[in-house]
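Everyone, carefully examine this protein record:
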Amino acid sequence: MTGDGTRVVRAGLPEPAAYEPALPGPVFAAHYHLPGDAVGPYTYGRDGNPTWTRLEQAIGELESPDEAAHTVAFASGMAAITAVLFSQLRAGDTVVLPNDGYQLLPAVRTRLESYDIEVRTAPTAHDAQLDVLDGARLLWIETPSNPGLDVCDIRRLAEAAHARGILVAVDNTLATPLGQRPLDLGADFSVASGTKALTGHGDVLLGYVTTRDAALADSVRLWRKTVGAIPGPMESWLAHRSLATLALRVRQQADGALALAEALRDRPEITGLRHPGLPTDPAHPLAVRQMRPGRFGCVVSFALPDHAHAERFLAALTLVDDATSFGGVRSTAERRARWGGDAVPEGFIRFSVGVEDPADLVADVLAALDSAARNG
């Protein structure tokens, strides 16, 4: 059995061939030679691509290293999310979503309801989705939640759902497969935006779905083909190349996020500080049981007194980009309320820790907080 650091370096690579690169370059092809009546593994560019295949194999090895799994790559995280929802749900079905998840879920809810699919919601914390499961077809879990960083018990929810014949999907974007393995905890689908920490450089849009059930994988793959939500070969190759450093990035980011959270605990202007790795965080006991040791994610969230205070803080940072998204090698922070769609205060900050030296990052953040307080 190999460790994560070894696995990410080798995942999805073909057998070594003399004078060939370890990771072959991207294959650009809309169609392939099809002699006679035989049907090979690649026929048309919307159906499959060798570059996708290698990436999908690699992600499957990370999400399910001890049991065979099927991964389907998509053009974005939202393409992956909607593929699961719309491939599995029909008119008259019921789905349970978190009411504190990713900000586009309300838009997804509106679309689902327009197709006569009932949508129920409940908070992530305290496994509240248990209370609205009866009669559902699919349970959607997001843990840790974005941006509030609440955690729910995947195994408990999955067991309760399966006892009722309900499928379970987990958005694993924030944790990454090195921080949490939903399939090992009972989920039917592990879904993620590869745009974030998986690729980690802020230059690729990508998503994926992994499942151990071949029939479920086929249904998701057919949805991808039908709507054309396919990843580009260059994006797929860049994502695969980036996986080699995933373990290094996840470790450094988790260490930096915990250091930042600890440094912010005693700041009087900060309220609602959250990070699952912080021993005082309400989600910490469950996160310790469910997530991999020391890999509690790169995101820290907290609130400053108001809109203006938050903007002064962001403007005073020198090592942090004022940008949306998370999981990149460069630290980013944003006043999340600017977008709407999240039930957060005007001064709420979602902070994504990069791979900078934690001491440098903490010093920059504390200096920016001092500046924001001084100039208020």
